[in-house]
Structure formats: C-alpha cells, structure tokens
Amino acid sequence: EVQLVESGGGLVKPGGSLRLSCAASGFTFSSYSMNWVRQAPGKGLEWVSSISSSSSYIYYADSVKGRFTISRDNAKNSLYLQMNSLRAEDTAVYYCARGTTAMANYYYYYYMDVWGKGTTVTVSS
Amino acid sequence: SSELTQDPAVSVALGQTVRITCQGDSLRSYYASWYQQKPGQAPVLVIYGKNNRPSGIPDRFSGSSSGNTASLTITGAQAEDEADYYCNSRDSSGNLVVFGGGTKLTVL
User: Residue A18 pairs with which residues in a beta bridge?
Assistant: First the structure.
C-alpha cells in the first residue's frame, strides 16, 4: 500500500524549533519529488516547500524562506522539514505529499497524488 | 495571497450539476489539479492533467480548461460530495507551487 506517515509535530514556543518527518512506503520514494503543505486552523491549503527526487531542486514559499529547510534521505525513504524561528502563524496541520510533473497537449501539469494524514504543529507561549 | 482565485462558496441541489472555477495566469501554461477535502481529513486528488481521474474517483467528476480558467464539474452531485475543493498548479515561474483559496461546496 502506498503510504506517507508524518511525525514530529507538537507544541513549541515562539522562536523555537521543530523537525518534522515523513516516512514513505509502497512506492519508489527516490523517483518522486515531495512537498510539504500546511493548513492553518479554519484556513485553506498552503504550499510550504518542495524537493526534487535527487534533492537538486528545492523551493520554498516566501512565508517560510530562511526559516524552514526541507531535506530527504532516499536510503531511508524519508522526507524532513526543519522548522526554526517558529511563529504563531506557523500553527497548522502539516502534510507531506508526493508530487508529479507531466506534460500533455503542450500543457504542463503538476499534481500531488499521495498525501499523509498530517501532523499538528502549535506555536504558542 | 494566492495566485489562483476560487469562489469561496458554491451550492448545488442534490443530483444537479455544479461547476467550480479557478483562475490564474499560470493556468495558461499548466492544467490545474483538483483536490477534495472533507472536515478532519487529508486532501484527496480528484482531477489532474487535462481531465484525468485517479483510481476510485467517480466519473461524475470532470475537469476542463480555457484560457486562464480551469473548471471542476460534478455532474449529478451527491451528498457525499459536500466538501472543500482546492485547485493547484505551478506558479508562473514554473518553480513554485500554488493553491487556490478553496471553494466550500454545499449540497442542498
């Protein structure tokens, strides 16, 4: 069964750090780009960061650039998100999601077809 | 702010057809993908590419695109289709990923 399982969430004080992990199983992890997507309470989905299959390409949303670091270990089938200088507005459920880019009819398309159940991060004093 | 724009809420009578739209400049180069999210659950991919459904997604869900607008159509909406729907694509640079603000679908 194709599966992603996040862990590492919890309660942290403003300015603190947390490291999220995402364990992948049931597919060839090293062949896919991966993403972190978050959802603040009562809000919509917000893309946080993505990393290519070989870690060659890494991108961040402006809201987390310079504070968060995405990484992966293909030997361990694992994705990580190191979160530093946390703020109250980082409070959210954090999902990892598998990403795929493809092309058809001269259009590109990008989709996330496998998602974990999420891990909750609460930043509060 | 999101580079993809969705109507915040849409309603549809049971069994009728509803269209949810998503607008953005990047949609001139990228097909949108669509996700369904029910309360307390992770998002589920329902449409990707020109009009592709993952395994297990009912064929009442379909996608289309014209210019800078992508649409998700549910033909014969069911009570279980009541959920939040999000569109997604790359941004205009092709590097970043963007989501629309989401549309809350109510089935009456």
Answer: A83
Task: Give the three-state DSSP class for B90.
Answer: strand
CB B4, CB B99: distance < 8 Å: yes
Nearest to A109 among B48, B96, B99 (CB): B48
B89 contacts A110? CB cut-off 8 A:
yes
Tens of pLDDT, residue by residue over A14-26, are: 999 999 999 999 9
Contact A94, A36 (CB under 8 A): yes
Q: What confidence tens digit (pLDDT) does each residue in A42-63 have?
A: 999 999 999 999 999 999 999 9
Q: Nearest to residue A100, comparing CAs of B85, B72, B43, B48? A: B48
CA–CA distance, B90 with A33 (Å, rounded to integer): 13
**Spatial CB neighbours of B79, under 8 Å, sequence gap ≥ 6:** B14, B107
Chain B residues with a Cβ under 8 Å from any Cβ in chain A = 2, 29-33, 35, 37, 42-45, 48-50, 54, 65, 84, 86, 88-90, 94-102
Q: What is the pLDDT of residues B10-28, one digit of tens each?
A: 999 999 999 999 999 999 9
The residue length of chain B stands at 108
Q: Which two structure tokens, joined as six digits, stand for A11?
A: 């309660």
Torsion of CA B17, B58, B31, A69, to 10 degrees: 120
Distance separating alpha carbons of residues A19 and A104, to the nearest angstrom: 37
Of A26, A72, B91, which is closest to residue B100 (Cα–Cα)?
Answer: B91
Exposure of B59 by Cβ count < 10 A (0-12 exposed, 13-18 middle, 19+ buried)?
A: exposed
